[in-house]
Structures are given as C-alpha cells and as structure tokens.
Amino acid sequence: MAVIELDQVSKHYVAGRSAVSSIDLTVDDGEFMVLVGPSGCGKSTLLRLLAGLEQPTAGTIRIDGVDVSRLPPAERDVAMVFQNYAIYPHMSVRRNIGYGLRVRGGSKREVAQRVDEVAAMLGLSDLLNRRPSSLSGGQLQRVAMGRAIARHPQLYLMDEPLSNLDAKLRVSMRAELEELHTRLGVTTVYVTHDQVEAMTLGGRAAVLREGVLQQVDAPQRLYDEPADAFVAAFIGSPPINFAIGRMREGALMLGDQALDVPDAARPPVPDGESVLVGIRPEDLRDPRTVAGGARLEVECAVRQNLGADVLLFFPSPSSGDDYEIIQRLTASEAHSATRADRQLLCARIATQFPARAGDRLELVVPVERLHFFDPDTGTRLRSGLDVSHPRADNDRGPIHV
Q1: Confidence grade of residue 194 (pLDDT, cut at 50, 70, 90)
Q2: 44 and 176 in a common domain
Q3: Is residue 237 located within the same domain as residue 307?
Q4: pLDDT for 81-101, tens place per residue?
Q5: Which of 52, 78, 347, 360 is deepest in the core (most CB within 10 A)?
Q6: CA distances from 96 to 48, 126, 173 (A)
Q7: Do 210 and 350 share a structural domain?
Q8: How far, in Å, CA of 21 to CA of 182, rounded?
Q9: Is the pLDDT of residue 339 over 70?
Q10: Which long-range contacts (CB under 8 A, 24 or more apart) does 265-269 make?
Q11: Shortest CA distance to 9 belongs to which of 149, 1, 97, 19?
Q12: Cβ(167)–Cβ(194) under 8 Å?
C-alpha cells in the first residue's frame, strides 16, 4: 500500500496550455480517492502523471515518501486499468491476467496459482480459456481488473473503467469495485466524469475544473457544503437550481417573491445587493408534509414520473442576463436556458404530490438548506447555519437519474 503526495504539481504543454496547475493533494494509505470533473479538466492527465506516462513540468510526486517524479512507469509499482480495457485479443483470459506476472519473471506454478486466485475473486474461473472476443463488456472489465490485481501493486490507477458499460451494468460494477477495495485495501485513484460514481465510490473526491483543484472532501460534504458554485453544480443529480436573488429588508427576493430568511441563515450581503442562490431539487418540499420554511409559488411546466418520485419543472425567476452569470460560474450546460426567454428549474417531490402542467403550485423551501454564492466569483458565502448539520431521517440526499 502507499501514501501519495502531490506537491505543487503542474503540467504545461506547448503554446502555454496548462493541463493541471499547482495541484496539492495527499491520498492516504489504503484510501479510495476519486478525481472527478468535466471532460478536459485535467483528471486523466493527473492520473498519467502518477503512472509515469507523463512527467510534470513543475512540482513533486511522492509515493511513500519517495520522489517518483522522473521515474519510469516500470519502477513505480503501480497498476493501471484503462477505459478501453487494453486486453490482448490474441491471448486467453488466463494469459491476459497472468501477463504482468510472466513479464516480471514469475514461475509457471506461481503465475497459475495467482491467476486462479484472482479469477475466483472476480468470478472469472469458468472463462479462463476463452478469448476476449467472446466476452461481454462487464467480463472484459473484470479481466482488466484481474490483470491489475494479480501483480500485488502498491497503487491502483483507474481511468474511467466503467464508462463503456451500459447503465445497469455500471451500477453492479460500482458495487463490485467498492467490495473489491474493501477486501484488498490497496490505495486507489479513480478518474471519472460521472458524479454518481464520485458520490458512491470514493472515501473522498477531488473536484477539478480547467486543471485547478476546486475542493477535496467526503462526497456528502461536497453535496452539503460545496466550496463554490461549480462544485455545487457538478455534484448532485438532478443538478442544483440556481437563480439570482437580492436581499431586501431581511427577505430574499427571487423575482417578485419574497422568502423570509432568519438572521442566522442570511448570507453576508447588504440590502439591495444580488446573491447567487442554489436550491437543490430535493430541498423543494410538499407544503402538506413540512412545517415551517419559506413558501415559493411556481407554475408547473413539465411533470416527469420516476416511480417513487416526480420531477416538476417550472420557470426560473431569473432574467436573461442572470443566465449568463450562472453559466459562467457553473460552466455547465445543465444550467443553460432551455429557451431564449426562460430557464426551467426542478423540484423532486413524492409521486403523490398533485401537480400537472399548467398548475399553480406552492412549494416549501427550508431556508437552512439554501446555498448562497458570490455572483462575481462563485465562492460560497457563509451564514450562521453554514456548518455540517445532521439530516432528519426523512431528508433525502441526491437522487441519481
């Protein structure tokens, strides 16, 4: 096992383009760390730097206290699982899993014994004599993981290993990956653009944007206390709602509606000043089931049934100029205008809630669940209630759809 330390690590390419910039990050011994962010944010480059497939332009990479910044991949004792599996098509499953052991001079008996152990662990025992062309996507992924596991490396690096699988298989493979890590306890760095994987797999997740580390924390804290609007937008599904509000005489104005916000929950914004407000869809509640909270009147534009829940979409009180601010701070197409003259926000409510397209509705907003951000920088604004607080038993975290 290994402790990884990245100290001011940067990677610059020609024409001054930076893939990653001044990354400081420590991955503890035996930890499962997820690197998450949109395409092009630098997470795969960071993984390649750890593997030795790239060398940093600046900074230091240490594994168990040893500077490996300039060491070739073969001298780092790491195993990598790729997005495209990188399975040798002319070899059987047995030979694919044992390839790394044979290259390192293992005896036939040692290699065979280790391959059998790994195959049994991954449910591949009945497939050892088959060729990759006859395997499903999930089976190929197990073979790729088996090849990495067989070597007993001190570090696993995984580059979007589940992205080529269908949605149902990804769910089961996530559970298998988590179980496997619990059993092996090897330090793992896992790259994904899928925030669902970030929420469900990692002990901690590191969110990157344009090569810059935005926040490193437990997934639930990323959801509950995002450091900025970008993290808030990226973590959670359906994505968080954003609107530009203004403080006036102790109330939060969203369009022409006033939400009463107690002093303890009020952001440090003077009267008349604007603030970026984030409201998660699951924090918009049925007024028949919640006592207290601020009331918000909306007009349902679309109702989508999900079984136990429904998603209700309604027009945002924000103006067209506000959309540009929101898009700039979140860098997310999920928060772009759905039409030239309006943006739709979302509420997640129990199926029994009576609402159809065109209905006027009243929703409850628990003010302690509001998120406030600086409309110029996107930085989180602290309030008196802005600390980790336990959820009620009936509070629901992010839904994944």
Answers
A1: confident
A2: yes
A3: yes
A4: 887 778 889 999 999 999 988
A5: 347
A6: 22, 15, 20
A7: no
A8: 32
A9: no
A10: 265/367, 265/368, 265/370, 265/383, 265/384, 265/385, 266/383, 266/384, 267/372, 267/381, 267/382, 267/383, 268/381, 268/382, 268/383, 269/372, 269/381
A11: 19
A12: no
In a domain, residue 382? The reply is no
Distance of alpha carbon 384 from alpha carbon 368, whole angstroms? 9
**What confidence score (pLDDT) does residue 396 get?**
42
Q: How confident is the model at residue 334 (pLDDT cuts 50, 70, 90)?
A: low
Specify whether 86 is located in the same domain as 124.
Answer: yes
- The greatest distance separating any two alpha carbons of the chain, rounded to the nearest whole angstrom, comes to 79
DSSP 271-324: TT-EEEEEE-GGGSB-TTT--SSEEEEEE--EEEE-SSEEEEEEE-S--HHHHH
Q: Is residue 327 part of a domain?
A: yes
Q: Which residue type does 351 have?
A: T
CB-based burial of residue 190 (10 Å sphere; 0-12 exposed, 13-18 middle, 19+ buried)?
Answer: buried
This prediction's pTM: 0.86
The tally of domains found in the chain comes to 2
195 with 249, same domain: the answer is no
Which of 166, 194, 224 is the endpoint of a domain? 224
End-to-end Cα distance, the chain: 35
User: What's the domain range around 154?
Assistant: 4-224
Specify the amino acid at residue 258.
A
Q: H helices within 82-128, ranges in order? A: 93-103, 108-122
Residues 324 and 191 in one domain: no
- Please check whether residue 380 lies inside any domain of the structure: no
Q: Say if residues 160 and 48 touch (Cβ distance below 8 Å).
A: no
Q: What would the pLDDT profile of 122-137 be if each residue is shown by its tens digit?
A: 889 999 999 999 998 8
Q: What's the rounded Cα separation, in Å, for the pair 12 and 16? A: 6
| Residue 305 and residue 180 share a domain | no
In the prediction, which pLDDT does 389 show? Answer: 41
Q: What is the pLDDT of residue 400?
A: 40
Which residues share a beta bridge with 159? 191
173: domain CATH number?
3.40.50.300
Collapsing DSSP states into helix, strand and coil, what is residue 218? coil
Q: What is the per-residue pLDDT for 1? A: 62
399 within some domain:
no
Does 355 lie in the same domain as 234?
yes
Average pLDDT, the chain: 86
